[in-house]
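lol ok so funny story. i was supposed to be doing the assay writeup but got distracted and ended up predicting the structure for this chain instead. priorities right. anyway since i did it might as well share w the group, maybe its usefull for someone
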Amino acid sequence: MARTLTATMRAVAVTPKQAGSARQVELPVPRVAAEMALMRVLEVGIDGTDTEINDGLYGEAPPGFDFLVIGHEALSIVESVGEGVDGFEPGDLVVSTVRRPDDCPNCRAGESDMCLFGNYTERGIKGAHGYMGEYYGESPAFMVKIPPSLRPFAVLLEPLSIVEKATYQAWKIQERMLWAPKRAVVLGAGPIGLLGTILLRLRGLEVHVYAKSPPESSQGRILSSLGASYRSVGDHPVTSIKDELGQIDVILEATGNSAVAFQAMAQLGTNGVLCLTGVSAGNRSIEIPADVINLQMVLGNRVTFGSVNANRRYFEMGVQHFQQAERQWPGIFQRLITRRVPFADFTSALDRRPEDIKTLLTIAAA
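and the output, tada:
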């Protein structure tokens, strides 16, 4: 039975660069063209980017608006499709990608995550409204179909895509040599750190996670079930990791702490690779042993690189790894979802709590 749509919809928006400005706004329900689909949002994941935008640290409104609808991690259902849309039909579950390309060569090739010109837009972050509303219009080029069996945790696909890209590119870099990694370290036990651990364990690596939470925390129990070890940095500082573990082949940094990023460089093993995924919002200055780090990086053939955003292929990889990991550790992804909050209580969802791993804002029922 067809749904009768109202003319307007609710959404959560902020005034960019104004702290604590999150509020509910009313917008017209999008009118979609023949090549577009109308999406009904089911739930939106909250992450540090959302809270930092609401803290006024960054964010950019779309042209013609003085506010930005936030939210970039969404699970949606196709409400209707235009005549020119192939491959999707009403009722399909979808996760949409985040970044929209400019006209640089990489963007034209489908790799907007490697944009050269920087004139891209990002849903809910930079120059384009996000998904924290009841509806949005979307092009099939940015829609990833989700099997119904993944419905309970598919909203995690966007953060999973971030570590899909990070680990894939780490392995591509290491094609510079014959490489058989054995030991990996993950710094941070938030969603990115936990999802990264899952991917590294799927690759068969020995994984050690260092973070602030105590070992008896939910994060510690999840990591233990994955066969990874967990250490609290209160007792095991980052600066002593290589003394504790020996050769470290891969480090995935997921803290957003610039000091930790530089500390990690000094812990990397010979021929190892360090991927930085955390974004540092601020202007902190630190002292580092520059000569020591430089010497180690050169003499040890070490590589450090940064990774941000993800294009469609990494979302598609994530769908496959969702299925693979669920077979190996049934229910593992649902354990990462620690709080579901009704749409009307969005301020509570944006209030990050120490026990939170992933908070979801429920917009509509399936």
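The mean pLDDT is 95. The radius of gyration is 21 Å.
back to the writeup now i swear
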